[in-house]
């Protein structure tokens, strides 16, 4: 919190932006500003010579100066004044802004982000810049003080040495004093080092704890339908005779299992920008909302009733068109919003789901009658790891929702009032007619009757993997570890190899290398629970052609096998 009036110099030739920023700063309720807005560098330098400024907001492209030279001239004139760069959104401008930060600027803001995020982003940047500049001054003062003390100590030693020429006893005493001083200094340095390590370790463990809490929280949410519906089938086997009911439960279990797998995938996909390779299909929002309501029923109805809480689910659907998107991500996004709404109603309430068409977009609104949020919480609720639930929440839910909305070129609006509930509105672009040609690619045409080697130390995974491959009419040879797999590879003829990564004796990475030594053209597919993380980091071990993440589906296995075979076709 800024506690005193700040003299802020705004150097920006875009009058509209300058007026907007000045108005926001002058109307701030959390800090008092005195804003001087100038349009060129010469005027800014003249102002700094005649008056003081606590912080400068600087556009690099001005009528009388442009680029890095703008910052260099202003910084040379007043090196003690913290400077925040206002950058355009193009890559060259951002690279230039980064260079200025490396040469002494305290921060840089992209003008587009300032428009989008509002005053809070600008105020935080000013606060951080002032704090960093204050820290730099304190460090410099401490260094000057240390130099002074060292100089004083040096003078003392010089005088002592002069005396030592005359008195041997005095020299011995001075040497002992110096050794004692050095010991104290070494001890102080060691204490500082240990304190720094402690702070770093504490922050690292804190971050890991928050991440682990979030992953456990989301896994439990996603696994609730798996446990609930499977337990119902086990408790009442007669349900299996009701084909439609059994298939409905199995579909919900399957969807929930895919959501569980998506928890790990989010470690790579969190806030990932949409890529050209992302496959978007036509998605019926009304159908997905209905599926999510059914999928999350064990949480908002069954578990709530068990705790003495009654939550009513109401729907109001318009006949809206389809949107272009990733259906599993959209399903996950809606589930997170419903889970947040449930958490916000500890004493019963209603969740109202509504779909409508607005300005070329399909809007999905989720309103709850829960506790609501303060304005500060509402403004920060989309930040990753921000949570008001203490140890009961991770702060990942709405951050994940925001990431998915961004990847779908959509928009999210949150309205909330303390004690009156919250409304989350998601806007997704309607599917354009021209996108019908970009339907999902057909399943890979994998040859049948291939002889495949499967190396997996987990018996259940090995059984599922072999069953999937045999379903595609392949002949399977299995091995329980890397060494057995290598022996069977030497003794047999195979078209491709599937291997787990983490195995005793010889892991999958080592096995792949040994296989490629025997047959460089042998396709090798690596199966690992870290597949999404490896894909995000671009990690593919030596000897491995394709990495497939666990849990896998039959379609993923087919795609992985086809990709590995294609890599070794003539001319590939």
What would a concise description of this structure say?
The chain has 572 residues and is α/β, with parallel strands linked by helices.
Structure overview:
- Helices cover 53% and strands 17% of the residues.
- By secondary structure, the chain is α/β, with parallel strands linked by helices.
- It has three domains: 6-134, Response regulator (Rossmann fold, 3-Layer(aba) Sandwich), CATH 3.40.50.2300; 277-438, Heat Shock Protein 90, CATH 3.30.565.10; 451-567, 3-Layer(aba) Sandwich (Rossmann fold).
- The strands form four sheets. Strands 2-1-3-4-5 form a five-stranded parallel sheet, with helices on both faces. A five-stranded mixed sheet has the order 7-9-10-12-11, with helices on one face. A five-stranded parallel sheet has the order 14-13-15-16-17, sandwiched between helices.
- Helix 14 links the parallel strand 13 (451-455) and strand 14.
- The chain is extended, with a radius of gyration of 32 Å.
- It starts with 5 loop residues before the first strand and ends in a 5-residue tail after the last helix.
